[in-house]
Design a protein that fits this description.
8 helices, alpha+beta, 49% helix, five-stranded mixed sheet
């Protein structure tokens, strides 16, 4: 049975979001998912207005997708309120995948994602669980550090980080896209700890690629 990724998440402090921004919020989530489909099929369900579940067919890119969701939400935040999401990623098999509904599907990846999501508190917005204990042990600490970094990105840092982690573009190319100087983009990526985030993602992608997927 194929290994996949499942994200369970919700928008942080969603009751504070201006009703006029709700449509933009949903469009932003959908657009981020669309951007990540270049790595494989991604299926999204949004429910209760602020909660979502996502099935990612390519588990190697699942953690990058999680961070792109957080970065993309923050990058598109209105000036009045900074958007962010709590998310738990489960990696594992899926026993039952309902075509019409992600949230009615079931399996190991769903259980891991759901359990970790239920354990998230006010001070923790990111979790990861796989079937491999040594994998989980290695990423427990690094995920906590990355969560802390992600919770403090600015809107402008997020705009630069999103393009960097999604496309791998150079600083010059990102500068052209965002109509900023290369020096400004360099400062944004350094401030957003882009190198550390990429090291974290590369380590995850390297290790999970060795598993029997």
């Amino acid at each position: 049975m194929k290994i996949k990724g499942v994200i369970t998440g919700d928008i942080i402090q969603s009751t504070h979001i201006d009703p006029a921004d709700r449509s933009l919020l949903l469009d932003t989530i959908n657009n981020i998912v669309y951007d990540t489909e270049k790595w494989g099929n991604v299926r999204l369900d949004i429910y209760r207005g602020d909660s979502f579940q996502i099935i990612i067919n390519n588990p190697v890119k699942a953690l990058r997708t999680v961070l792109l969701l957080r970065i993309g939400l923050q990058a598109k935040s209105p000036t009045s309120f900074r958007w962010d999401a709590r998310m738990a990623l489960g990696i594992g098999t899926i026993d039952f995948e309902k075509e019409e509904s992600v949230i009615e599907s079931d399996g190991e990846a769903f259980r891991f994602s759901g359990w970790e999501f239920d354990k998230l508190g006010r001070s923790k917005n990111l979790a990861l669980k796989t079937p491999w204990d040594e994998f989980n042990d290695e990423f427990k600490v690094s995920t906590a550090f990355v969560d802390d970094i992600a919770s403090n990105w600015t809107i402008t840092q997020s705009q630069a980080l999103y393009l960097s982690l999604l496309t791998g573009k150079t600083q010059k190319e990102i500068a052209d896209d965002l109509q900023k100087s290369s020096q400004a983009i360099s400062k944004l990526l350094i401030g957003g700890k882009a190198n550390l985030i990429e090291l974290y993602l590369n380590r995850y992608e390297q290790l999970i690629s060795t598993k029997n997927l």
